[in-house]
Structures are given as structure tokens and as C-alpha cells.
Write a structure and sequence with these properties.
The structure is a homodimer.
Chain A (H helix, E strand, L loop, with lengths): L17 E13 L3 E8 L2 E8 L5 H7 L7 E10 L12 E12 L16 H6 L1 H4 L3 H23 L3 E2 L17 E3 L7 E3 L5 H9 L4 E9 L11 E10 L3 H20 L8 E3 H8 L13 E2 L1 H4 L5 H5 L2 E7 L7 H12 L9 E5 L5 E3 L7 H11 L6 E7 L1 H18 L10 E5 L4 E4 L4 E4 L14 H4 L8 E6 L2 E8 L4 H10 L4 H15 L6 E7 H8 L30 H6 L2 E3 L1
Parallel strand pairs in A: 3-5, 6-9, 11-17
Antiparallel strand pairs in A: 1-2, 1-4, 2-3, 4-5, 7-8, 9-10, 10-22, 12-13, 13-16, 14-15, 14-16, 17-20, 18-19, 20-21, 21-22
Function (chains A, B): Catalyzes the attachment of L-aspartate to tRNA(Asp) in a two-step reaction: L-aspartate is first activated by ATP to form Asp-AMP and then transferred to the acceptor end of tRNA(Asp).
Pfam families (chains A, B): GAD, tRNA-synt_2, tRNA_anti-codon
Protein name (chains A, B): Aspartate--tRNA ligase
């Protein structure tokens, strides 16, 4: 062992102890006759002192050659510091060094290894191994480990069994794009990397392993939006002989446990709201409920007046922004412009100031009297000093626009406190979603989701109205998990594939093994999956998942550190029975 | 929830309780007026009773329709059994059923769902979800979970941090063949799936994360020998600021912990033997030391006599087989034939019987007198009643042949007791191995392994003699883990690539990122990896890893259950910029 102690543990109780430390030179202050070096490792920083009077000449001289990030080993005595540093756990002591060994030199690092670094995103990704030396990144990785340990412990204690499912599986064109792997031994054939272990976990249920989980990498070859990764990690779970309520309870319990153990936060029983309610109230199926600003639907009091825009709209909807009554005309115009940007796409926005004297001043005073506006205030819950913003148009689109405004204003008003945690369940998701381009329905969750039995009849008449036993867990405006009760009989699964536009041949070829399995005594089952990267980031009070992944890829799916992907040899291509085109 | 209890927990303390159970019909015995059904779930079997006199007619009649593997839910009362079954935890009670619901019917399964099944390997793989219902397979998966939980707990308690490394990495032609993944977004380029996270864990050390582990899938596109899988799981570990001794101690501790916690077995400090000693003594770098039969080198007392075969040999070596003196001539001839099979390849074998009266009878009595043979007995440790078998030829080949005999005879003599655990370390592996075909040296472990500093000079003069700081953990004749102290400076790493026949361009292109990293303060580091599949199998007292993998592939790398790999669409190929040839 190169050290007797680490750089984070020595204190006054160790004074006069002979110790050996090893680590990196964080910084060095050479005062001529005295040289202080901050030695850093994973556990902390300890101050070393080289003193012309007290150190051997060779050691003293060698210390002067140390550069930033040199790896050194020192032997010395723990002594009390003259100038104590209360901000460091080791701030009361320093090491008077008697022996110094340079274990490895270092070039000057391309950015500073400090909590606040001067390195930009690109350079930090290229030298990720240096970035990991920085406390923020290092602590995120340690935090991730702590979360996964707690998850495993909690589920294992409830008799869940972690089962590894295969990574080399079968490609199915349904859903997102697969990454594929050419098979050398099976010419012209390909494996696919799993987008999730969905079918395997269902087969484990058929196999009687009634409580399964796995923390597992999944893969999607999607065009990467900001903060998406081609490989990502799921906490994947499934249970048999359960109803939706049982699943919600177990994983609400897990999440409550994590919040308590990891963050020290107690949360109440999670609210459960339906998808329809979420859309109507927040314009969003993953509402952030750390703050209010719930939607008020104003059709009744905004239509049938002389304002043609509202009269023509399917939906007129507003929110009351607390304390925003003081916004200047310029600020309001800025917000209207913000709403009109293509990313949001509103055609305009109406505002109503709730004056201190109880009157209202709006941009549509020409069309609405004080009584009308009082109705609006009542419905949106606006108080004196608030501002009501109102948008109108096609229902879904308008709700989405107002949701964007709600989130933006909450951020500006500091209502999105990362230290506050407001989880909830959104339930009763629609089974199907109309793809406007193709005019075809596709599964909102996936084709294995069970429709609600009472809605089965609607499949023929009004497929968009069929609700599923599907649910999402939402935390601070992020979907952190989602799942469903699955279909467990062949007939319903066949029907579902039919509705999704599979021919029976296609269904059989791609999912025949699952439908076969359903014929041999498949139990009722369901489950969910958490997005671990996102969950960890949110628990860590941050929103960027990349900071919680040791070696992330950039938006082109490249690992810029190792420079992958890369070309491969012709020999390799030949063995795989493929060539480039 | 479909059940109030599981099928393994009810006993006399529950008598008169109303319960709800759900599970699979294991078997049904219809006696006309009485019908017993064994209901099975993951936790056990509970007997149900349907009685013409005590059950409702509809329930009684419905019970008669139940087939094997039907999934049912029952409500009923726990009653005491008349004929108790002491072999079942639930054997004192049965459930008098009042309500019966068939949750799902089942076709007749293609093999019996019993501990001893009538299904062959192929059919069980195709219907693996049914195979998993069988206790032996189910218990193996639960056992695997238990082992991984203990591993994580042990390492985490020692401050090891589990870090997920990427699966989409860079292909390197060195080593085994990579599985590759064509990149859609980077035309003409490929990711590779990791053969191990080797370089990433080293970069984590450079990054200061000084104790890392990960239970991680790895991939090798090899021609599959029996009991190899294209995807397999490693417990991958690395530490910084350590010497070999520290690593051996930590992972010996882990293994001892597993043996204690999982098997209730206390083992002594692991013996440590060198590679050279292992080869000389057991003819094998992964010796099974649950039994003796150590090699005796007989050159001194077997050569320079009149037996030309031995005189011409580089090595004459024998083992004493305990109690084998009674082997008949036929048995001995059988063993000689066994040794001459192409799989072993011996050209012959000499035997010496150690008679009860202290004399010897050998197949080479013509050339050797009793005193010669007494020397042989002394060197091989043969006792009265034993048999000495002697082979000769080129040293390495001959040792390997005798090792095969040693293992075979131990198996025949019942000395390979799966309930006994004899771990050891084999250390000081050679750094390089001569590839006889190409005449080139390649890395025995991998190119990142550090040569022993004292052997560095031999690299120029006698590369085959250079020893590495490399070690294997061996358990019951299986290598269950291996690792090394790594090179951590650019110059040595460059030198190593040169000796391995890389041009400096090749080295830079493939491993430039690692050598760059070594320039920014890389600490001394080393580690090891356990093969989890094998470790679990051996701890489970079995040798076949496939039985400890939920969804294994066959020897052609196929998943016969889901039928993967498979053809993919032309659209997919086109998007990936490849075509089939």
C-alpha cells in the first residue's frame, strides 16, 4: 500500500503520528524558505509543508520541482497548523514531510482541476479522466453508486431478484431504432441491442420469477436531442399476480425510501392524477407540482363576447402568475415574444393585471368588462398583485404552449427549487396515440400494455379514447419512471398487434415467442422502469444527466475521449459478411 | 394483489385462516369425490382440496377441468391435513377451496416442470421460460442474485464505487474478436462492444476514483467451445496506490466472505504459488488442490538406464494415484488408451504398482530395478497400494498430458467434491507467450500488464522469461479471477506495444487516449476481474455456467427461444450504410 491514511481523514487526534500519504499535487505555494503543497485524493486535501529549516535539503529541493497534478508519495509527521483552515476537515493539521517520492509527473492539465473549472464542455469531455478528478463530477459518480446500492437493497429486501437479461437479442422494427450487431457465425443475420428488457422480463413472469428487477443498460439509436444518450440505464422491474395498485405502492415505497435515505426528505403519499387531469390542469403529462399556476379554462367567460380570436378557439385557457402584476409593459411584451418563438408557437397572448385596488387591467379591455375579468381571476385563482396570462387555440397545442410558459415563469420566479421534491403518479394514460403523419395509431407506451377492460369495446369505435393500465411516476416535472399492467393472454396480444397494423405474420415473426409463452400459463403481471440517469440527476438536484455518467457521449453519439465510433478493418467486415456502401 | 399468502409459507399456525393463493397447477389427483391439486409458485407448493361434500358444486366441477400449468387463484380455509407430508414446509396443512378462478389456461407443457425433467437441453432452451419454473433453474437464478448482492455489499463497505462504463466503445483488433455495431450517425464507422472495461477502469484510476468495481456484461465473438457464452458477466475491479499484495488481500477477503456467507464455509489464508511451481507440480496454471497427486519429476532416476524412450525425453514425470494399485491390467490399458486419444495426445504411459509387500511391479521392469522404482515412489509420494503413472516427452506438453490424467483420475476416485472449496492464488505469470504459428510474442494477460521491474532487462534478451505482476485466483481447478498490476507510465506502455509488434502509429491510433492519460499524473494501479458466471456455478457446486444464466445462447451463439440473431430490413441496412455480401 502506498499510503497509511487518505488525504481526507487526518486531524488533531493524529498529531505527532508518522504517516504516509499519496495523491495529486493540487497546488504548491513556494515562499522561498517554506513550501506548502496541497495534496489531493478522492477523500480530501491535506496540506504538506517543506521547510528549509526542518526538511532535508534533497527533499526540500525536490519539492520545488513539483507541478500541478504530479502524483507523489510522502512520509512525514502530522503537526498542528499555525493558521488553521476551518473550511477543510483536515484544516487543523499539516504534514511536515521527511520523504518525498514522485510517483508520476504530469503535463500541465488542459483545464484547472477545481470545483469551478476554466474548461469548457468539449475539452472536459476529451479529458474526462481529468474531469472526474474534480469534486462535482467525482461526487456525482459516488452519489450514483449510493443510489443504486439503496435501490438494490430495498428491492432485494422485498424478495425481488435481480436477473440479467441478454444484450444480444432480436431486432424489432417497431418502436425506436435498434442498434444492431452483425453475427459472424450466422451469416447475413444480426443481433440487436435491447431498447429495454421488456419481453424478457415478461418471460420471467411467465417463468414464475414473480418479483424481478435489474439495473441495466438500454440502447436507442435515436437522433440525439440535448441530454439524451444512445446508451442509458434503467431500473427495470416487473411483478406477477399484482394489480396496478400493488405496483404503485411498491415503487412509491422505493422512491420514498430513496428520498429519505439519500436526501433526508420525508414525502407524503404521492398524489395520483389521471392523464386527462394532468393535461387539463398543467398542459403536461409530467407536471411539476412544486408550485401552483394551475390552468383555468375560460371558454365559458371568454367566448360569445366580441373578441373573435377567443370565439374561434377550441380552448381559452389561462394561468395566474403570483406577484407578476408588477411586470412592466416591456416584460410582458418580452413574454409574448417568448411565446411566439417557433419553439413554443403561440400566435399571441392576452394578459390581465390584478391591480392592488381589486380592479383588472387587461390587453383585451375593449372586449371584456371587470366582471368578465373577475370570473377569469376566480377560475385561475388569481389574487391581487398577480398577472393572468391567457392563450387560445386548438386544445392540445394550446395547453402545451401554456405549459411551456408555466415552466418558464416558475423558473424565473425561483419556484423550481432543486432541494424540494414533489413526486406524483400520473395514471390512466391513453393506450394509443394517433400518428398525424401516417394517420395510424401506435402504442403510447408499448404494444404489451393492457387496455382497461372497461374500455376494450372502444377499441373498435374510438381507439383514441381507450385508456390503458399505464402510469408514470413524475418528479419535479420529469418523468422518472413509467410502466403498465401487461397483456397476458395470446388473444388480446394478437388483437393489439392487429390494431397497431401488424400483419399476423409480422406479429408472429417478431413476437411469436412471447405469444407462445402466453399459452403456457402466463400469470397476470405488470411493472415499470425508472430512468436511472435522470433519477440520479434529479435526486442530486441537477437536471443534466451527462454530469452523472462517467463516460458520456456527445450529441453525435461520439465518445470524444476514445474517439469512437471508428473505422474497422476490411478483414473484420469480411468476417461479418458485410461491406460499406 | 391476487394473493394473501404465497405457496410456501402456510403451516399449522394458520389453521382456520381464510387465505387467497395464486399460482400454477403442479398436479391434480382426481379421486372422484375428492380432488387434490398441488398449487406451485416461486416460494413453494401448497395442497388444495376440492371435496364433493364440502365444496360448492360449481367449484368442485371447475376443479376437474384444471390441467397442468394452469394459472389459478383460489380462496379457501387452511385446514390440517390428515396425511401429513414431512418433506414439504406446507405439508401439515391444505386449503379447503371455496372459490376458484382460472386466471389463464395452459397448453400441456413440452416437458415436465419437475426437479428431474424429461426435457432435453434443446427443448428446455427453446421454452426457457418454462425451464425457469423448475426448482433447479429458479434456485440457480436466486443464488446468483444472492452472490451479486453480497459482492456489492462487501466491496461497497470497503469504499469501492460501482461505476458504469460504456458499452458502445472502440474496436481494437488486438485480443479476441470484437462484436461491432455500425453507427448510423457516423457513416462507415463502428462501435465495438467491450471485451472488458479494461481501459475505462484504468482511466478511472487516472481520474482518482481509487477503488472501482462493476458487475458488467462483456462480449467476445469467439468460436464457442462448450460452456462459453458470447456475452458473459464480470466482477470487474481496480484500485490505485496499491501493490499486488494489497489487491490479493482485498479479493481474497471478498472470496472468503462469499464462501462464509453463501456456503457457510471457513477457509484458511489462500496458498500462493507461482506459475512455474503450478506448472511443475500440477502441469496446470489452475490446479485443483482439493487433492494431492502432485507431480514427481523422475529424470534423475529414470534416465541413463536402458529405456530409450525416457532417455530421449526432456521430461519424465509421474504421479502416485492413491489406492490404484488394485487396478487390473484391463483398467490400466484403458487408461493408457485414454491418454493416447488425440484430445490428450500421449504416446504411451508407464505404470508402477506398489505392492502390499513393499515391492514394485512395473511395465518397465526390464529396464529398472526395485531400487530405481523405490526412488520413483519416494519422489511421487507413492505408498503401498498406490499406482504410479509415468509419462515423458517435451516438458510443457508432457505436463499438460499428466495434468489431464490427474484430473480424470481424481474425478473417477471421487476426489473432486463440489462441496469442498480449495482456493489459491497463482502468481508471477509470464508477461509474454510465444505464439508458435506466428513466432511472435503476445501478452499472456493483456498489453497493459506491468512486467516485474527486476525482469525488465530480460525483455531484450529473453522475452519469454519476463515475469509479470499478474495473478489468477483459482478455485477447485477453475480460474475464477485474474488480474495484474498495470503499466502506468507512457514510456513503458509504448515499449510494451513495440514488443507486441504494434507500430507506433497503430499504438497511438488504438490506445493513444490511454497513453495520453498516463501523461497527466497516472497513479500506480492494478486490479482484477472475476468471471461471475463461473464463480456462481462453482459456489453453487456445479460446473455448467449455462444453468446459472437466465437466457443463455447455444454453441452457435443463437438464442433459440427468441430466434436471434435474425435478418433485418433493407431499410435498416441502408440507414447503417452497409450491405450484405
Amino acid at each position: 500500500m502506498y499510503r497509511s491514511h487518505n488525504c481526507g481523514e487526518l486531524n488533531v487526534s493524529n498529531i505527532n503520528t508518522e504517516v504516509t500519504l499519496a495523491g495529486w499535487v493540487q497546488k504548491s505555494r513556494d515562499k522561498g524558505f517554506m513550501n506548502w503543497v496541497d495534496l489531493r485524493d478522492r477523500y480530501g486535501v491535506t496540506q504538506l509543508i517543506f521547510d528549509e529549516g526542518r526538511s532535508e535539503k534533497s527533499v526540500f529541493e525536490l519539492a520545488k520541482t513539483l507541478g500541478r497534478e504530479y502524483v507523489i508519495q510522502v512520509k512525514g509527521t502530522v503537526i498542528e497548523r499555525e493558521a488553521k483552515n476551518k473550511n477543510m476537515t483536515t484544516g487543523d493539521i499539516e504534514i511536515l514531510v521527511s520523504e518525498l517520492t514522485i510517483l508520476n509527473a504530469s503535463l500541465t492539465p488542459p483545464f484547472t482541476i477545481e470545483d469551478e473549472t476554466d474548461g469548457g464542455e468539449d475539452i472536459r469531455m476529451k479529458y474526462r479522466y481529468l474531469d472526474i478528478r474534480r469534486n462535482p463530477v467525482k461526487n456525482n459518480l459516488l452519489f450514483r453508486h449510493k443510489v443504486t446500492m439503496e435501490v438494490r437493497k430495498y428491492l432485494s429486501d422485498l424478495d425481488f431478484c435481480e436477473v440479467e437479461t441478454p444484450y444480444l437479442i432480436k431486432s424489432t422494427p417497431e418502436g425506436a431504432r435498434d442498434f444492431v450487431v452483425p453475427s459472424r457465425m450466422n451469416e447475413g443475420q444480426f443481433y440487436a441491442l435491447p431498447q429495454s428488457p421488456q419481453t424478457f422480463k415478461q418471460l420471467l413472469m411467465v417463468g414464475g420469477m414473480d418479483k424481478y428487477f435489474q439495473i441495466v443498460k438500454c440502447f436507442r439509436d435515436e437522433d440525439l436531442r440535448a441530454d439524451r444518450q444512445p446508451e442509458f440505464t434503467q431500473i427495470d422491474c416487473e411483478m406477477a399476480f399484482v394489480e396496478q395498485e400493488d405496483i404503485l405502492n411498491v415503487f412509491e415505497g422505493l422512491t420514498r425510501h430513496l428520498l429519505k435515505e439519500i436526501k433526508g426528505v420525508d414525502v407524503e403519499k404521492f398524489p395520483r392524477i389521471t392523464y386527462d387531469y394532468a393535461m387539463k390542469t398543467y398542459g403536461n403529462d409530467k407536471p411539476d407540482i412544486r408550485f401552483g399556476m394551475e390552468f383555468g379554462e375560460l371558454n365559458e367567460f371568454a367566448q360569445h363576447k366580441d373578441f373573435p380570436v377567443f370565439n374561434a378557439a377550441e380552448l381559452v385557457v389561462g394561468i395566474a402568475v403570483p406577484g407578476a402584476g408588477i411586470y412592466t409593459r416591456k416584460e410582458i411584451d418580452g413574454l409574448i415574444d417568448w411565446m411566439k418563438r417557433p419553439q413554443v408557437g403561440a400566435s399571441g397572448m392576452v394578459y390581465v393585471k390584478c391591480n392592488d385596488d381589486g380592479t383588472y387591467k387587461s390587453s383585451v379591455d375593449k372586449f371584456y368588462d371587470q366582471q368578465d375579468l373577475a370570473h377569469w381571476a376566480k377560475i385561475t385563482g388569481a389574487k391581487v398583485g398577480d398577472m393572468i396570462f391567457v392563450v387560445s387555440g386548438p386544445a392540445h397545442k394550446t395547453r402545451t404552449q401554456l405549459s411551456a410558459l408555466r415552466m418558464e415563469l416558475a423558473a424565473r420566479l425561483g419556484l423550481r427549487n432543486p432541494g424540494e421534491f414533489a413526486p406524483l403518479w400520473v395514471v390512466d394514460f391513453p393506450l394509443l396515440e394517433l400518428d398525424e403523419e401516417s394517420g395510424r395509431y401506435h402504442a403510447m407506451h408499448h404494444p404489451f400494455t393492457s387496455p382497461k377492460p372497461e374500455d376494450m369495446a372502444l377499441l373498435e369505435t374510438d381507439p383514441g379514447k381507450v385508456r390503458a393500465n399505464a402510469y408514470d411516476m413524475v418528479l419535479n416535472g420529469n418523468e422518472i419512471g413509467g410502466g403498465s399492467i401487461r397483456i397476458h393472454d395470446k388473444a388480446t396480444q394478437q388483437l393489439m398487434f392487429k390494431y397497431l397494423g401488424f400483419t399476423s405474420e409480422e406479429a408472429k415473426e417478431q413476437f411469436g415467442f412471447l405469444m407462445d409463452a402466453f399459452q403456457f400459463g402466463a400469470p397476470p403481471h405488470g411493472g415499470l422502469a425508472f430512468g436511472l440517469d435522470r433519477l440520479v440527476a434529479i435526486l442530486g438536484g441537477q437536471e443534466t444527466i451527462r454530469d452523472f455518467i462517467a463516460f458520456p457521449k456527445n450529441n453525435s453519439g461520439r465518445d470524444v475521449m476514445i474517439d469512437a465510433p471508428s473505422k474497422i478493418d476490411d478483414t473484420q467486415l469480411k468476417e461479418l459478411h458485410i461491406k460499406l456502401v
